[in-house]
Amino acid sequence: xxxxxxxxxxxxxxxxxxxxxxxxxxxxxxxxxxxxxxxxxxxxxxxxxxxxxxxxxxxxxxxxxxxxxxxxxxxxxxxxxxxxxxxxxxxxxxxxxxxxxxxxxxxxxxxxxxxxxxxxxxxxxxxxxxxxxxxxxxxxxxxxxxxxxxxxxxxxxxxxxxxxxxxxxxxxxxxxxxxxxxxxxxxxxxxxxxxxxxxxxxxxxxxxxxxxxxxxxxxxxxxxxxxxxxxxxxxxxxxxxxxxxxxxxxxxxxxxxxxxxxxxxxxxxxxxxxxxxxxxxxxxxxxxxxxxxxxxxxx
Length: 299
Known about the structure:
8-stranded parallel beta sheet, alpha/beta, single chain
């Protein structure tokens, strides 16, 4: 059965890609990571986005990762990221992922050659027609310098091109505009941990979060509080993880996050070039916050 916007609710974990010591993909650890997320209560998995190091993977590795996630997910939705800059490369990736069993795709806004709103609208429509899988639009302008307007999101929903969007943007007025224009037509998912509780309280129906790779239970607690209308309690809980977020996002994701998970006994390996491991200062911060944050005591 094809995914609809009603299926995009709760936590979708943007997982890291585990690497073995020789920097090959560690598929056993990958499958265990997927199973842990779903056992914790995550709704679905989003592999090989930015957190999953899409640009550093070969085409075959990406397809193999999606297939492994689908196998481990045992029916739960897997929506891999498609971060290719060019339309035809993005089409190739989408077809690979569809063949591997993906339930849908998280397609980033076109970047580098950034078109006008109508051009980006046509891009998503053409992509949806070519791939025939449900699409989650991925907006992250600090990486892409491209953003769709609230009106364009509403048009894309009416076109049937997308069923939802991941909002990785700190622009709250624009977020509210998207909710106003398209919130009844699309599943709006937060991509920003510091704004997660607020986004949910305002009308987002879930989130695609990278730090859930290590703390899925914590973010599900925040989600439940905020979606039940207790924003004050949700924010109080979320505030407790702020030092962790400051440390793991101090340098380009996912280097610090993977180092943090390694420290916590969840071996994820390193990152591929051009990324490198965190600096000594960031490592010290990560070690400090790991010793001080206990999600089981967070309340």
